[in-house]
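re: that complex we talked abt at group meeting.

here r the seqs, copy pasted straight from the sheet so there may be weird spacing, ignore it
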Amino acid sequence: MKAEIIAVGTELLLGQIVNSNAQFLSVELAALGIDVYFQTVVGDNSVRLQEAIEIAKGRADLILFTGGIGPTEDDLTKDALAASLGRGLHIDQLAMNHVDQFFSNRGVPMTENNRKQALVIDDSTPLPNETGLAVGLAISHEDNYYVVLPGPPREMKPMFTQQAKPWLLQHALTDETPLYSKMLKFAGIGESLLEDKLINLIHGQNDPTIAPYAKEGEVTVRISTKAPSDSEAMKKLDALEEQIRTILPENLYASTDVPMEKVIVDWMASTGLTLSCAESCTGGLLMESITSIPGSSSMFMGGIVCYSNEMKQKLLNVPKNYLEGEGAFGAVSREVAEVLAEQVRITAGTDYGLSITGVAGPGSSERKPVGLVYIGIAEKDGKTEVFELKLSGNRENIRIRSVKAILYRLWRRLAEHKADTPL
Amino acid sequence: MKAEIIAVGTELLLGQIVNSNAQFLSVELAALGIDVYFQTVVGDNSVRLQEAIEIAKGRADLILFTGGIGPTEDDLTKDALAASLGRGLHIDQLAMNHVDQFFSNRGVPMTENNRKQALVIDDSTPLPNETGLAVGLAISHEDNYYVVLPGPPREMKPMFTQQAKPWLLQHALTDETPLYSKMLKFAGIGESLLEDKLINLIHGQNDPTIAPYAKEGEVTVRISTKAPSDSEAMKKLDALEEQIRTILPENLYASTDVPMEKVIVDWMASTGLTLSCAESCTGGLLMESITSIPGSSSMFMGGIVCYSNEMKQKLLNVPKNYLEGEGAFGAVSREVAEVLAEQVRITAGTDYGLSITGVAGPGSSERKPVGLVYIGIAEKDGKTEVFELKLSGNRENIRIRSVKAILYRLWRRLAEHKADTPL
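got the structure back, here u go
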């Protein structure tokens, strides 16, 4: 099946935002065995949008739209598609209730233009918007399938995964041999080294296929195979996964697309272990990533962002002479990372205590180079480990990579205490 | 002048990379007063690429290509364009020398396929590649202008700025007036209400144009005008900005594309004010967003993530009977938000203390609904304010919106102490 993605929005044509929706959908469609032949971006202009639809009709079986379904006057996607299909539009009552509910919950009066967000094309399947207001839709018309999704990624992604994907599997992909994939997640290893280690495996076979790609600070390998049944596919995928695990046992941390923090949160929660953190240069990013996982409240007690030296002394008992004066180690040091990890663990009374202190940049501090970071792990009745990192990239990269690094080290430490991995 | 950007590369259609080239070029072209009407992505396929070229010819005056000019067999851009223009290709001697030089410098033998990177279309202007090997080109043919650029951003960007842009100004833009824009950023107001307030202004005029759009939790308005000179443009844009400010004085927080946290960090740093935070349900997201801004270390001292009730009692002196027992307020309450803000301010010895406590979900807690959040602002020698929020969306949305809300309230509080805004 051939697909085209049409992103609607003048902000894309002005370069105010990058078209990350097209990337997300392309990956998802590839995983469904659908070939994306074109991605198109068109502005909030009715005539040009309809031109784009006519072109797409002729060269794609499936056309996905993102954007242009909000409340404002330049949100034109549904109108343009309805016109090009010769169909009408009507208010979807469930969607309208959802919009009304939103405003009454907030105690804010609903302005009239918000009714627009509940519009759907006649005889289409409404796709509920669980993270926003504008309802999406899916429709089969003549030889084409159409899916209309919101522009904001936080609304588009869940609507595709939870609403549009099942609709496609049921209506559009009935006679395709389904493609089954597994996402293998790796930590503590770079893309090129990983590819190097797997190169023989990658070249040695083409079913299942092996596709590595790198995201910010972590590497993912997608293994895929087409098979008539789930069980046949899984047999092939599981076998390959085991081969890869034997090559990289210390790096393969999950065989579903979950972040390391989720593996850690679930593991510690299920085994009754608790965690606390002391962050300097990452300023809360570590704790934010842990608490982004539902269920973290049962294993994460809290922590301290000790951005200033005063906070390091006052709340985490870092000796003043560690931080200041002639020959002091300085805030960015192995010694301070050690104290931070141990003291936050004691203060919070947790099984593990993590610490991060470093120079995120842009400027250097204490005459130490940007990218120098120390991360510490303290453990109840266990030894405290401190690791030195020399990271490259900008402030954001360095902060993210510091967090990835300490999470990886915690995962390794937890694994040492367990014969079998949590996977 | 109407432009279309055609990005060539199957890796884009597979979602392996995001089309950041289109964003970069769109911004550059807008600044030149060129309207980008379409962005197209097509794979490394000769037939589909030529289809895309024919479509673009009919709807754009200027067509820019990125990608598909490397040494490999799937690099087809120059061949496809040459075919569609009915022209030949030849080796550009300067480009060939550049390629030879590269290999001889490295002492590596040049493989034959690298000669391809020196190819240009007959009677075109070669665009030297200062950061890579593949030569680009610019060409005027019948009613269209064509510019061919490399795919890797580190090659494409300098080639556009140093080679293609001057070519365009000299050959294609002799009679264009440049476009000037301003980004107005709003907080504490939704997209629909904002448009409702500005609707008369939006309808009442088309120069400067007014384009509102919503990002996660905030609204942006771009005002744009074409003018012969910077000063004339700014006069028109500033006048309109003032009109909008009079309508929404409590929501317009910046007239450049900066996040609220940057405005607050810069403001507090420049006035010597300091800040600390106590976070429960947001788990560090507030402090992470503040410390993501370079320079925050001079105004942000740190804070506490008091995820558990024990941490709220131990580190922030929340009375036990506030949290537990018959008729207790509970952790998610106005009273606890107040204590958290005041205690973290005192502990850190800062001018302001912020607090967030709420139910981010997915599950409710203390029999309180998901989305109920209390945010507090404590101020040295000032009164403590607590606001109740009823937010919708998933865990991530609720956490982000809670942070946006407290930042907005802090900005308002800072503004109250200042006759003029920081803008």
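couple things i noticed - Chain A touches chain B through 92 residues (CB under 8 Å). The first helix of chain A runs from residue 10 to 13.
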